[in-house]
Structure formats: structure tokens, C-alpha cells
Write a structure and sequence with these properties.
The chain is α+β, with helices and mostly antiparallel strands and 412 residues long. 28% of the residues lie in helices and 24% in strands. Its cofactor is Fe cation.
């Protein structure tokens, strides 16, 4: 077992063991700075868990597609001719060139610009120039690498990058009841329309953003807009499986202004806040151990005035920018090597404590599986056909040279 990861999991010595004795202490700084931990999260979390991505309103017409990425995995969502929303890795099956190069578009077919391989909106291979002359080439086995897609009760689109025919984790296992919360009854998601997207690049770990979102302990000192959206004295969070429900009372004045808010965080990296005039999907997208981007898809009620929409849209933009300031400075101190962790309040920081517990449990469980298997386990990785014996030998040879990422102490 790699010594660094032994320490992360509290197995490397007395100091690590002491940290584990206090249930209220936060995850240590190393979990927010380590390249090894980031790579483990890619395997244990982002290639296994269901990820909230967008809303079906963004894929309204046949051929509409959107490109997304998370933790180094890039994929495409599109609506096919039967009205289904499909998902595929943005990887040509031939030589791994991206199938699409833009962020969004509308197409009749996906054509790789490298060698001209083309695919239907359902991901099936349509044309591979020259390969029709090969007797043993099977078009049916060379479509785009699929990902799992689910549309929930309210029209939100989820993906799971697990490469198996059926994902190891069922959506219901983490999110049963998350899309049928009673408080959603006052909103009709069909009355909204996509308005715009905006992004903030950030020099901090994605988990810092999640910790920050999931508590309002800092709201009174940082966010002057929040009292207009919620009664801070009544603020609470409820945790269940893979989601964290945020709740606060709404005054009659707030309700009259269309500021009745329902906020939910969905593990690992997404949330949405909905009001009568507006909702947005927020995704914390990691690109390294100390860098990420905050990506927002904003939708407005079709019947709302510009004034009503801009009131809440402007509030949330200010709040998110204020959070970025906090998180950037926190990461700088975590990087310095001085701070290990601090105690967190069991009630006021119940949300981040629960989030961190889910992170800890998820990565430790996956890492134990890897130790038992004596190799890294990448759920999203392509499965090779039984006939690819030479490729398997090549993989084993390379692994023996430790030329795979993070192979210290692991043997294929």
C-alpha cells in the first residue's frame, strides 16, 4: 500500500489514528491538495457515482447536443430521432480523437475530423472509411462508448460513467425521493426555459466549494443578500443518502417577491436552487487537486418579468462570487503546509460534515477494493473484447514498468 495513501486513511501511524478519534474534525488539508487523492476520487467517485448535469430543456430538438467534462472525463449528451437523450464519451472509437470540438450544437450525425468515422445520434457507428474491406470488422462493436443517462421526475438529466452495461450503483440507492420532495410541489419545471450559462474558474479543490455551499454558518458575515432569500434563524439541513436538503422559512414578503427558495445538494458535485422566477444548476467541476471551475446553467420562468428574474439572478451571482473569494483564500492556507484541520460545529456545519463523511467512506471503500485486487480500478474505462489478447499483454507489460499513473505499490 502506498505510504501516502496509508496516512490519508488513518493507517500510517499514531498521528493519523488520533485524527480519526474525533468525529467532528474536518478532513485534513492533504485531502484538498494531494494529486494522489484527486486521482483516487476520479476512480472512486466521478467514474462510479450518478452526476447531476443539466435539464432536458437544454436538449429540446432532435440532434441537439451538449459537451460536458468532469475530473478529466469528457462526454456528450444528445437527443436522438426517437426523442431519447443519449450520452457518450467524447472519444472516437478508432483513435481517441474528440468527436465534437464545440460546447454545443445541433447535428444529424457525429463525424470525427481525424479519419472520418461517423456515428448516429444513438452512438452507433455509421461509417468507417476503408473498414468495409476487412472481413472481421464488426460495426456493431465499434460505436461510441456509452454512458448511462437518467431523466428524473422534474426533467433533470443525470449521468453515470460506469462502463459496465448496468452501473454498479443504482440511481435510487443515492437519490430515492430527491426529485419528489414535497416542497417542489409549488414549482412547475415545464414553465421554465434555459436562459444562459456562466462560469468561474477557481484555484481551489472542488470539495472546498462543496463544504462552503453546504453550510450557512458564514452567511451572516459574508452574504448581505441572503436575508432577502431566507430566514437565517430557521436555516437547517437534512441529510439522506446522496443528497443534502437545505431549508429555511420564507416570510410573506419574500413569498410575494417570488423568493421562495428550495435548495438541494446532490453528491458529489452539483446542486440546484429553484424559486418561482428562476432556477440554476451549479456544478463544481474538478480539473486537478487545487483547481476547479464553478459552472452555472440558469433557467427563467417563461411568465416572469425581466425585473423579477434579474432580482434573484443578480443576488445569486453576487453570492457565488463572494463564496469564490472565501474558498480561494482558504485553499491558499491549506497549500502552505501549516494547517491540518479544525473542529466543525455539529449543527451549524452538519452539511459539510456529512459531505465529508460520504467522501471518506466512498474513497476508502474503493481503495480497499483496489488493494484486494492489487491494481487500480477505473470503472469508466473501456472494456476490451475477449479477442484483444495482445492488448491485454501490452497493458500488463506497461503496468509492470509502473508507467500507469499512480502505480506505486500496486501490481497488475
Amino acid at each position: 500500500m502506498a505510504p501516502a495513501l496509508l496516512n490519508y486513511f488513518g493507517l500510517g501511524g499514531s498521528e493519523a489514528a488520533k485524527e480519526d478519534k474525533s468525529a467532528l474534525r474536518a478532513l485534513p488539508a492533504s485531502w484538498y491538495t494531494s494529486q494522489e487523492m484527486y486521482e483516487l476520487e476520479r476512480r472512486a467517485i466521478f467514474s462510479r457515482k450518478w452526476l447531476l448535469v443539466t435539464h432536458k430543456l437544454r436538449l429540446g430538438q432532435t440532434g441537439d447536443w451538449l459537451r460536458y467534462d468532469v475530473a478529466g472525463f469528457q462526454f456528450v449528451l444528445c437527443r436522438d430521432r426517437d426523442g431519447n437523450i443519449n450520452g457518450f464519451h467524447n472519444v472516437c472509437r478508432h483513435r481517441a480523437f474528440p468527436v465534437v470540438l464545440e460546447e454545443k450544437g445541433t447535428s444529424k450525425i457525429f463525424a470525427c475530423k481525424y479519419h472520418g468515422w461517423s456515428y448516429g445520434l444513438n452512438g452507433k457507428l455509421a461509417k468507417a472509411p476503408g473498414y468495409q474491406d476487412l472481413d472481421d470488422f464488426d460495426k456493431n462493436k465499434n460505436g461510441l462508448l456509452p454512458i448511462h443517462v437518467r431523466i428524473d421526475h422534474n426533467g433533470f438529466v443525470w449521468v453515470n460513467l460506469d462502463g459496465k452495461e448496468k452501473p454498479e450503483i443504482a440511481w435510487e440507492e443515492d437519490f430515492q425521493g430527491a426529485d419528489t420532495q414535497k416542497r417542489f410541489g409549488i414549482y412547475d419545471f415545464d414553465n421554465y426555459q434555459y436562459d444562459h450559462t456562466w462560469t468561474m474558474d477557481a484555484a481551489y479543490n472542488w470539495k472546498i466549494a462543496a463544504d462552503n455551499y453546504n453550510e450557512c454558518y458564514h452567511c451572516a458575515t459574508t452574504h448581505p443578500d441572503v436575508p432577502a432569500l431566507a430566514d437565517l434563524s430557521s436555516y437547517s439541513v437534512n441529510t439522506k443518502a446522496g443528497w443534502i436538503q437545505h431549508d429555511a422559512a420564507t416570510t410573506p414578503e419574500q413569498a410575494a417577491a417570488g423568493l421562495t427558495v428550495a435548495s438541494t445538494y446532490f453528491f458529489p458535485n452539483a446542486s440546484f436552487n429553484v424559486t418561482p422566477h428562476f432556477f440554476f444548476i451549479q456544478r463544481f467541476v474538478p480539473s486537478g487537486p487545487t483547481c476547479s471551475s464553478m459552472r452555472y446553467e440558469v433557467f427563467r420562468n417563461k411568465n416572469s418579468s425581466d425585473e423579477d428574474f434579474e432580482l434573484v439572478n443578480g443576488m445569486y451571482k453576487r453570492i457565488m462570487s463572494e463564496d469564490k473569494y472565501l474558498c480561494n483564500l482558504q485553499q491558499q492556507n491549506l497549500n502552505s503546509g501549516v494547517f491540518v484541520n479544525g473542529e466543525m460545529h455539529p449543527k451549524m456545519e452538519k452539511g459539510p460534515l456529512y459531505f465529508q463523511k460520504v467522501v471518506r467512506d466512498t474513497v476508502q471503500t474503493h481503495y480497499k477494493r483496489e488493494q484486494a485486487a492489487k491494481h487500480e480500478i477505473w470503472p469508466a474505462r473501456q472494456s476490451l473484447p475477449n479477442s484483444a489478447l495482445v492488448s491485454e499483454k501490452d497493458i500488463d507489460f506497461c503496468s509492470g514498468l509502473a508507467c500507469q499513473t499512480n502505480q506505486e505499490g500496486l501490481v497488475w
